[in-house]
What we know:
Blueprint (H helix, E strand, L loop, with lengths): L4 E9 L3 H4 L4 E6 L10 E11 L2 E10 L16 E9 L2 E11 L7 H12 L13
Antiparallel strand pairs: 1-2, 1-6, 2-3, 3-4, 4-5, 5-6
Amino acid sequence: MSDPVRLRIHVSEPFDFERANESPDLFGTTVDHLDPDVDEWLIELEGWFTFHDAEYDQVLISPRYVGEKPGRVFDAIVGFPVRIAHRTPDGWHFAMTGTLSVPFETRSPDEDEKDQDAAASKPGASDESEDLI
């Protein structure tokens, strides 16, 4: 079994989310990333957030656009657009939107080294400047 992946959720709507919470950013983990066919991920948060005078410690996210899969977050440069749901007595209610990303601090030094090696091996990449004249 693989380890859970740590994720960052930046809540952009509702616009006043930050008024009731310390930050528009939520951090949490999921193991749903192990199944590439899953359309929604349950994220267990590292803390709580307040929404409509209730506190929540988990959210359900799904892609904001039809046909996308949450696993695309691993290919996103800035963030992957998502719908964010909170649990109600009637089930999950999608009432927020935002972006999902992998926090920079969770990258291992090996991943950074691989990225640098890949960039250096691309055609035209060189440490020496070329004479264009």
